[in-house]
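To whoever is covering the structure queue this week,

Two jobs came back overnight. Logging them here so there's a record in the thread.

Job A:
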Amino acid sequence: MKAIAEFAMRGRFQALVVTVAGSGSILFCWVSAAVLALVTLRKGVGAGAQLLLWAMLPSGLLLYTVGDGSPLSLLLGTALLAAVLRTTVSLSLAVLASIAVGILSGLLMMAFGSLYLEQMVAAFGEFLANLEQQLSQGGEAVQLARPTAAQIAGMMGAGTGVTAVLCLMLGRYWQAALFNPGGFGSEFRLLRYTPALSMGMALAAVALSAVGMQYRTWAVIVLLPLSFAGLALVHARVHAKGQGTGWLVGFYLAWLLLDPVKLMVVFAAIADSWFDFRQRWTAKPEQDVSRGDDE
């Protein structure tokens, strides 16, 4: 993976080739987004914007022909997060902007991708109907709730928000690996929010969930920054206690498979905003090295 970053940093043409090559692919658009973030962080918002304009051509063509705007949304979302990080030098603010990315992606999908959403609703309905038949073979009828277009749009918005943050972090990791080794790890472990922001995000998620079932996927979007802050807290704990990567692997498997673990991570981030657990674990807090010597 580092070889991709090294190739992209050789010059503007190389970065353009890598970015455009994957921008029209559903499978590889994340590589283009990460390179876009790397160029924005290293060369500036203007250089990143030039790459984005070229990358929008194949991703826009995919949206026009197939109706899938996820690659275009990912590129635009990652570019926005990278611009925020480059301008503010604050990873917490950049991750916080993922809420806007997720909500806007979902709203744009509802506004311009209604046909694609209808196809997704039909596909989910067919899958759940087959699943009901299999579960009902024992004699007892099973009825599963069908997702609405609004639910799927929120789900896709949340996916875009998560992927945009991951692409931003990959680009930031590449930047640190090439120009300031170790800088990204220290920066990520410091990710946390103030009590006011944490409670605001939590209350907004509760309010959206209370409106109706179809808005619970939108509530997930509001909780994205807290989820990443909770993961950063886990990394800080492992680093402070000198635990191996095997523990992190086990944790991420549990986090991916078990929803209660995801909720625990969010609650841990909220508690950390009040009590600052990192101060208790280390004698001296780590310094923010988001720029360091990589400028």
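Job B:
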Amino acid sequence: MIRTPTTQPETLVARMECLADPTRLRLLRLLQQRELGVADLCRALQLPQSTVSRHLKILTDRGWTVTRRQGTANLYRLLLDELDDDARRLWELARQEVAESPVFVQDEARLRQLLAARENEARQFFAGAAATWSRLRHELYGPNFTQAALLSLLPEHWTVADLGCGTGEASVALAPYVRQVIAVDDSPEMLEAAQQATADLPGVEVRQGLLTDLPIKPQSCDAALLLLVLTYAPDPAVVLAESARILKPGGRLVIVDLQRHDRDDFRRQMGQTSMGFEPRQLKEMAAAAGLKSLHGRPLPPEPDATGPSLLLHVAARPVLQKTTPPDGN
């Protein structure tokens, strides 16, 4: 079968002229492996910057490479996936012809040494910074990027209920990552603070209601939160049952609350009705509410925290299993 030519002769000649220079071939060989800056290319090819930059400009103007800015440096890469079939065949032929040439082998060896040295520098940095890395990360980048990364794992289509939302702190954190947050509290003062905090977040709806009679439709939420709520509830089992009611099959309930403690002065100061929970208690109450406990564990205390230790418990509403009718029915 005769292949119909897809490239104009002048275009083919221009591409061949571009690849006819050994320096440009050497550059393309390295740029096919990874994105590189001018300084790295100069070291790998052992050529001055003026020479490397001049050839990179030709390759970029002819559509072989693309550049992007990173800080004060320009990074280059080979546009192999964006080239048409004729250009890719031409490059593949040129690449194979020079694959074993000593100068190309040495270029790649120098690049490997350069990258290995840079990796070793990073390894040495972390070896020296290990003891203070957490503090250094927070000083340089702030404390919130890890939370943002974890929240971005949530499915975007979810509806999450923030039960006993208080001033709306959790709702504010969740709102950018899910479709809807329903924030519920019975305290008018807390609701006013939550409404102010979430006023600019269209995905948050603040509702007044009791945790024992939630203003939320049955099986309408993908997840629900009870953060430092159950120790204030006169009947935590009823709150758990009502939380289970609003969950879709497979929906999750996340509880964070106080571990059992003996600080009655703290309980009275905070207006709480109980002195925390044992993990076994939460598991039993979750089961009584029709929820399956997935996992629970004590949370490590925060360095500056003065209250009792906390625990985390996660439970889910079971998914109804479809039954297969007997044969012949």
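Note for Job B: Residues 1-5 have pLDDT under 50 and may be disordered.

Please reply-all if you pick these up so we don't duplicate work.
Q.
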